[in-house]
Amino acid sequence: MTLLRCSNIQVDRAYSRALNVPAFLKKLMNITRMSEQWVAAQIK
């Protein structure tokens, strides 16, 4: 889980620059293979 979080931070930095939230959510879901609700909870 820690490894996933580190990788999520790198992804977040890359995608926050693009400011493309829907694409970021899709990419994040693909990487973590988690549900949409989990992704939403992580962002909040």
Describe the secondary structure blueprint for this structure:
Layout (H helix, E strand, L loop, with lengths): L1 H17 L2 H12 L3 H8 L1
Helix pairs in contact: 1-2
Give me a quick take on this structure:
This protein is mainly alpha-helical and 44 residues long. The protein has three helices and no strands.
Describe, in plain words, how this protein is organized in 3D:
The chain has helices spanning 2-18, 21-32, 36-43. By secondary structure, it is mainly α. It has one domain (2-43). Helix 1 (2-18) runs antiparallel to helix 2. The longest helix is centred in the N-terminal third of the chain and has 17 residues, at 2-18. It starts with a helix and ends with a helix. The mean pLDDT is 68.
> Major sheet: size, sense and barrel closure?
none
The oligomeric status of these chains comes to single chain
Structural class: mainly alpha
What portion of residues is helical? over 70%
Q: How many helical elements? A: 3
Question: What do the pLDDT scores average to?
Answer: 68
Q: What distance lies between the first and last C-alpha atoms, to the nearest angstrom? A: 18 Å
Count of all domains: 1
